[in-house]
Amino acid sequence: MRLIILLRASLVALLLLATNTWADPAVWRVSTGEDSELWLLGSVHYLREQDHPLPDVIERLYARADALVMEIDLDDLDPASIQTQFMLAALLPASSPLSSVVDADVYRLAESTAGSLGLDIAALARVEPWLVALTLMDLGMTQLGYRSDQGLEQYLLERAQRDRKPIYGLETVTDQVRVFDGLTPAEQEALLEQTLSELDSAGREMDELLTAWRDGSLATLTDKLSASFEEFPGLYETLVIDRNRNWLPELERLAAQPGRHLVVVGALHLVGENSVVDLLRERGLSVEPYALPDE
Fold it and tell me: Which of 21, 52, 218, 295 is the most buried (most CB within 10 A)?
């Protein structure tokens, strides 16, 4: 499912995207020297069992990489600790339950949607709207067969752990919690409302998004990830652009180090204006579409 954000590409960017279509998931190469190489690979966080095995280019990139870089270093994290951090940050006062902080129509839709997913809305009564949105999105994806534990990041994490490859993160769980918890009440309600409106078409949207991702169709990815978000530019700025900018120092540091680093982040961060690709280029780095040589 798409995040509630605007991903608006400029005319020039769209023309470039239209000519850069891979037969595999899109990859960019950041080069700063003969002994340093960094690859940027866009990820789809939710996959189904039937989506495996993954495209061969991913297996080959991983095999060539000396280290794996993800949005968060999941290697050192305890799932229970993550859940606790999110729940504590999203806890509403007993005097201000969810039903009192969102529009009545939005609450009724959240209640019926939660029920259809097997969850009593009472379980979310003291949860801020942003976490309600994430919870319902996750439940909806699971019902459709899409699961985060089948996703690209989890697959590569387990590979790297077995192979004892170094694993780095561009941000911490605390950073992610702060981003969502820092949304204004209006932005949180917008996030929830948009999530609820998209659940009915989530299966079709995910199928189309996954096809575009596997084919490396950047124009389609940009279109899918930007549709219907024009009303929420502030949300896009907070959830995507600000994080892209925050990642730059670490990406520049890794790009300057000897070795090959495979960077795997949500595809959303690599397309459109103010993408990681564009921001690295603005900093003077060479970032070009990359195709692995034939074996």
Answer: 218
